[in-house]
Amino acid sequence: MRNGLSKDLIARVLGGAPKYTLDELEAKFPPRNLGEGALVTRFAPSPTGYMHIGGLYGALIDCKLAQQSGGVFMLRIEDTDTKREVADAVKIIEESMNKFGLTYDNNTVYGPYYQSQRKDIYHSVVADLLASGRAYPCFLSADDMEKIRENQKSAGFATGIYGEFARDRDLTEGEIIAYLDKGLVPSIRLYSMGNPEQRIFCKDAVRGSIGFPENNEDIVLIKSNDGLPTYHFAHLCDDHFMRTTHVIRGEEWLPSLPLHAQLFRMMGWNAPLYIHTSTIDKIDEETGKQRKLSKRKDPEANVAFFIEAGWPVESVIEYLGNIAASGYEEAKMKGQVKSFWDYEMRPKKIPMSGALFDMKKLEWWAKEFIGSLPVPELVNRVVAWANEYGTDVNKMQVADVKYLTGVLGIERDNPKRVRKDFITWSQTLENVAFFWDELFVPNAEYEFNNDALSAFLETYNPADDKDTWWAKIVAVAESLGIKNGDVAMNLRVALSGRTNTPDLYSIMSVMGGERVINRIKGAIK
Ligand code: GLU
What we know:
Blueprint: H1 7-14, H2 22-28, E1 40-43, H3 53-68, E2 72-75, H4 87-99, H5 119-131, E3 135-138, H6 142-154, H7 173-181, E4 187-190, E5 199-204, E6 208-213, E7 220-222, H8 231-241, E8 246-250, H9 257-267, E9 273-277, E10 280-283, E11 290-292, H10 303-308, H11 313-324, H12 328-333, E12 355-356, H13 359-371, H14 375-389, H15 392-399, H16 401-409, H17 425-431, H18 450-459, H19 466-480, H20 484-496, H21 504-511, H22 513-524
Parallel strand pairs: 1-2, 8-9, 10-12
Antiparallel strand pairs: 3-4, 4-7, 5-6, 10-11
Helix pairs in contact: 1-5, 11-13, 14-15, 14-16, 14-17, 18-19, 18-22, 19-20
């Protein structure tokens, strides 16, 4: 520690007197009144205009753990990088959260939830540190720091601002005033008391206790250019005063853990419990190696992809949920739970590394999910997707909702025998495209039995019930000396262009007499 600065000097250094004392902040953000075992979590994205699947994965875990414990899940916007455009980027995050059903509760008592609006809080905390000599104003310029770095490198020292290299850590008040008088604006740095020869033990809820060398870097707490905090300092203040109990964040933050533990200890605050999650990986098509999903190379790295391409958001959530809680799939298959939201996940079992996102596996979850939807709901979802993201063709397909309901309802009335051939909303429409004359592609390869088709046409009556209809097919087959199945196959291909379809009678009923007659006539020609 060094000598603390006087009140007046602190106000000058920070460009204004601090608004609160620490005691006032404690009172302003009281401990939350929640049941025992309730988790307070937050998703804390930096607004980049892009929501990565890894971010959604973390947010899901946050949301789930809070929800299942009767706790609180918050959304905090980490917008301390003022070079970035924020408004639209936040909208993208909020919309994604909404679409994927991750509901957050930003209670005003603990806000504001934009870090850029919490300057008063950060300055009040840092003022306390300046007053007690645990932080100091630093006037090093970018050039100064570059020179220090080069010297450190050539002399074989670790780079950074620490110990004897921290030029300004022991400036006198007079020296500080002299810099300020020159118009220089300092950053505020931690006066680190850490000694890398010693170890600090930090807890990660999944990895257990991890030993690290203590941090001796005088890291920046408040930046000189805009007076906003660094991530390290903002996270300290926010997670303390928002009363966060669990910080779930990417494993890239694991190396910062000793620093964060040091900061909490220095303040005398209880640190939250950390869970560092694995990156979301894929198997690279070219190299066959596992690697992180890349914003540049993989469209599925962006959560917007799933929405636009028509994946049911629930299936993405189910799949990510199963990555976070591998026991979920089994519980679901056994019918013990209906969705991930009913499954009690265990924080300790969140994978530490190697979480694989496999589109094939997602398909399975999507088929399961769509298979479980009642027809009216399926229709609603397809229509909503097509109208927002679909092509003109998709929009045409959903224009007549009654017809669409008939089409999508085929073989979907028996909950015991659920069909699982629909994967996405767009693939669903593609799968049933032959129902629309504009999209129907006649089968040019199939060798139709014209006699069978003509004979059927002669007796065809759209009003026939299924038994009568089948009796007619049998009669046609008998009269021509061919198999019943051959007659049915001729009709199937004539109507759909395909040799494989759901129930033929249902297809005819949905298509209606006129369309059926036209298609059969078309095939005969
Ligand atoms: N803004 C940080 C990030 O996006 C948040 C990390 C955290 O959750 O603490 O990585």
